[in-house]
Queue: 4 jobs
Job 1
Amino acid sequence: MTQTSGKTWFITGASRGFGREWTIAALERGDRVAATARDTSTLDDLVATYGDALLPLQLDVTDRAADFAAVQRAADHFGQLDVVVNNAGYGHFGFVEELTEEEFRAQLETNVFGAMWVTQAALPIMREQGSGHVLQVSSIGGISAFPLVGAYHASKWALEGFSQALAQEVAGFGVKVTIIEPGGFATDWGGSSASHSERLPAYEELFEQVAEQRSKRVGTPGDPQASATAVLRLVDADEPPLRAFLGEAPLGIARADYESRLAEWEAWQDNAVAAQG
């Protein structure tokens, strides 16, 4: 099939949350979407509604070969690839001392390596087209950090690092990169899709404090459905930003964090200069 109008999207983690809402928003306006999920039956209702405009693909993003095959199949099926959304991911809850090697590696395999493989698979197609837009779904946790989710922060900081480098590497080919940084939204991120470390008794009191702090910080969670309008504006922008918050809270968190960092670096600048010799 060759696309003649609208955009073609490739969205990972489309079974729920942001991925599902953004898939629906793209389809509603007449775009085409290759939507991936571990279980494609979760997309059956969308196939029934949108027909050939939706290509459901079974995918575990930690499988590099499967990522490359899925991206190529989407491009071959629709004839082009305009927007790639690396949305598949989950949150792991556990203090750093509690993390097992398996838990930490699994967090990175999905949130970092999965996005890396899908991105690498899409780039040759976009370079040949001379256009394309990669959306990396990070988090306010990609630039700040809080207790209990150290593994998640590690994954999102890594995602942001390679994506900022990538944006500079592919700009000359007409390919754009945007890192999306949501605050708290009513997705399943902290629900059944999350994983948890076995808790150590020494951290029990801190665990209760952190839970209370998180509740205050997040406030009223945002509506994932409403976020779709903001994402469509990003993909339609002639000059989209490298980074884009979703929600009201992230800007305040980022401002406080960066002001604190700058003040601390400046306070220790004499020591930094002395280290130079």
Job 2
Amino acid sequence: MDTKVWMYLIYLTVSIGLTVWVARALARNGQVFLEEVFADERLARAVNSLLVVGFYLLNLGYVTVAMKHPGAVGSTSQAMEELSLKIGLVLLVLGALHFFNVFALGRYRRNRLRQLATHPPIAPIGRLPMPAAPAAAPPPR
């Protein structure tokens, strides 16, 4: 096989492996954060699943688009240099997607907490009966 084909195979293997590993780690560890942000476990699980699907689509889409190398790869060292550049870009995209998700969810959480703090409490519907006052002790003799 050609050096370029080997470079593509290694690139796909490493990039897809990194994407799957990061997505699983973020889904597993982000669940607690999402439960706090949304204050609803069921909604947090649904958002977590949607974030994972979006993460896969964006990152694997980028991996496949960035795979093409227009020039010839003459040597193994040139293939390694190109491979490191491509994998480095994949890692930067993974980091940027993670940062964006954490930033957006943190902002949503702050806004939700601010809304909860600005709403006045609900007026009481009724009153509890007053406890009976203790009987006065007879005066000492």
Job 3
Amino acid sequence: MDWTIFKLLSWTETYFKKHAIDSPRLTAEILLGFSLGIKRLDLYLQYDRPLEEDELIRFKALIKRRIQHEPVAYITGEKGFYESRFRVGPGVLIPRPDTEIMVEKAIEVLGSSNGQGKRILELGVGSGAVVISLARACPGHSYFAGDVSPAALASATDNAGEILDRPVHFFRGSWFSSLSPKAHFDLILSNPPYIPTRDIEDLAPEIRLHEPGPALDGGADGLDSIREILDSAHDHLSPGGLVLMEMGFDQKEGVKAIAGGIKAYESVEFIRDLAGHNRLVLIKKRN
């Protein structure tokens, strides 16, 4: 039988369903388009085209990887986020659509600030999706970003070089450990690990088996990294400066208690995502 694009998509969709792969048709389209080097739309413009033997072999290798629950983003080496596409790979957390609201809120914050030349820091930069998206949308500020992972820093540096006309200043270190005590910022961003350790085993295998554990595990109550960041952030914020962090949808009271116990902060605001869950916290340092 000649394996045309249409027949192969239909077979792969059924095969993925049997292996409990999410979005089986979409996944089949993405992987076949990637394998052939064409856009998803072109799959249907060429639906009756038969595949060559080498093309079938190449696509079969991708199918085998996917049924082992390797994330599609790791297979294709990229993930769309906000208005750009970011290179990702093993050892680097895959950017999530929910995190786009952090970029939107940060743009709003910078747009309402007086003057130019703000200093923005992201802690736990990962692929660089947040800080690079923000730097692209809001030029005219100085951007800094750190991560303890060499793989993440390499990914973020490469992405910044491809997407931005001006550099982000990257550094390696755990949270504030590599910064001078005199380093101050107007806005500190972070999407820290916030999943309770006991919940890691319940995550989808794509996450649990493939994405970097340290970027997910927030300790016994999921708040270890949030505590550590808030304990030190005020020492690196300018008067009136802001911390904007992602958090778990059920962590509002815990985060409020942590921030409320630190006298340097004067206000705590929670921002909901499109599903109505508390997803971000915005904390202001006293003037």
Job 4
Amino acid sequence: MKSESVAPREQERTMQLQRELVRLAGRLAAMAVLLWLVFGVLFGLCAMPNDQMSPRLYAGDLILYYRQIRTLHDRDVVVARADGETVVARVVAREGDTVEITGGTLRVNGSTVFENEIFYSTDAYEGGTTYPLTLEQDEVFLLCDHREGAKDSRWFGPVTTHDVKGKVITVLRRSRL
């Protein structure tokens, strides 16, 4: 008689374990969908590929950016796809603006841009973008903060807003603490 009462208990435990596993699988699936929505649709996360934004950002820093940007403003730091690479740079001009780089000076719409936090001269690259350059609709001109030798719009030209992945909202410092 004991063997008959043990079997229903084991069956009940097995059924309860199966129910818990199904609940766990459902929660894991919901979490995967939530993470995809958060980091695939709303936000992006990438590592800073180089030191071209130093001294503010260094290679290896984790960058959290917002993907659902509607408009970009001057001085926004963005993550973009340009020349087949991921680029992190600062917006210095937008559609309709005319950019000119001469004698180590950046001029936008005829006015010299004073950048008190940039410590390097802004020189044009030989064989790169020709100036003056007027930006077309949905184009932005990007410059890295470490201007000497940086691969930015002076190298590959303006970037379309479609190629901008998002606007940087925070940095998680992984290097040079």
